[in-house]
TrEMBL record:
Keyword Cell division annotated: no
UniProt keyword Cell cycle present: no
Keywords: Antibiotic resistance, Cell membrane, Membrane, Transmembrane, Transmembrane helix, Transport
Family: Belongs to the ABC-2 integral membrane protein family.
The protein's name in its UniProt record: Transport permease protein
Listed transmembrane segments: 33-53, 65-86, 107-133, 145-169, 176-196, 231-254
InterPro entries (alphabetical): ABC2_TM, ABC2_TM_bact-type, ABC_2_transport, Nod_factor_ABC_transporter
Length: 260
């Protein structure tokens, strides 16, 4: 193999190596894996069994209304785990060792992101299966399922890169966890758990113009075979904007971290 061919393969090989490393770390952290699955399941049961009877969402049953929201909240929790994992790497000195080994800089973050996305997608499948067991009844066609899954994957990818940027910005694991809290907070001030029109007027403006509302409305519309109106392109635009800004921001923060 020529030297140019070896160089061309180097970034991919490094990314695969770092992905394997992150995957092994995830398997060793059994408590984190269980929490990433059990927490959304507990919230799904709580919102549908304990509070579902008190919620009025029109013609839809509350479990149909809230299931897409739990999926998005699951992605937010998984993102906070990514932020703390990145910060842990940055503060424990392992990254400095990787730099002496001439590992491609993007590979470390790519490993964290790939494993986080796969973990979140697995949690999504488990939550949907549990929702069906509790009475969720999707009306989606195969094309609508594919569209909903594609948007969820894009949303999870964008949120995970945002978490990676937060992990690079934070100077401690506690700070990364605290900053990640804001990701978990957004679904509660959106159409995720209650229709926006039932909120106070001063809250409605924020709820309508933040990323969670168009994403959850689009996923809900696709799964329940109801009109998504203009929400779909707003949702895609938000996801692409977050992904672009987060990826670029991560690259900048990574270069700056050399000077720490």
């Amino acid at each position: 193999m020529s030297r140019s061919a070896r160089v061309a393969r180097h970034p991919l090989a490094d990314s695969m190596t770092m992905t394997g490393r992150s995957f092994r770390h995830a398997l060793r952290s059994v408590d984190s894996l269980l929490l990433s699955v059990l927490l959304p399941l507990m919230l799904l049961v709580l919102m549908t069994v304990a509070f579902g009877g008190a919620m009025n969402t029109g013609d839809e049953s509350y479990i149909d209304y809230v299931t897409p929201s739990i999926i998005l909240l699951c992605a937010g929790y998984g993102a906070t785990m990514t932020a703390t994992s990145v910060t842990k790497d940055m503060t424990e000195g392992i990254v400095d060792r990787f730099r002496t080994m001439r590992v491609v800089s993007s590979a470390v973050l790519t490993g964290h992101v790939v494993v986080s996305v796969l973990r979140n997608l697995l949690s999504t499948v488990i939550v949907i299966a549990a929702a069906f067991a509790l009475g969720f009844r999707a009306q989606a066609s195969p094309a609508e399922w594919l569209g909903a899954f594609g948007l969820l994957t894009l949303f999870i990818l964008a949120l995970t890169w945002l978490a990676a940027a937060i992990g690079l910005f934070a100077r401690s694991v506690d700070t990364a966890s605290a900053l990640g809290f804001f990701i978990l907070f957004l679904p509660y001030v959106s159409s995720a758990f209650a229709p926006v029109e039932t909120m106070p007027r001063w809250v409605q403006g924020f709820a309508e113009h933040q990323p969670i509302t168009p994403v959850v409305n689009t996923v809900r519309g696709l799964l329940l075979d109801t009109p998504v109106d203009d929400y779909w392109w707003t949702a895609v635009a938000w996801c692409l904007a977050i992904l672009t800004v987060s990826a670029v921001g991560s690259a900048v923060l990574w270069r700056q971290s050399r000077a720490r």
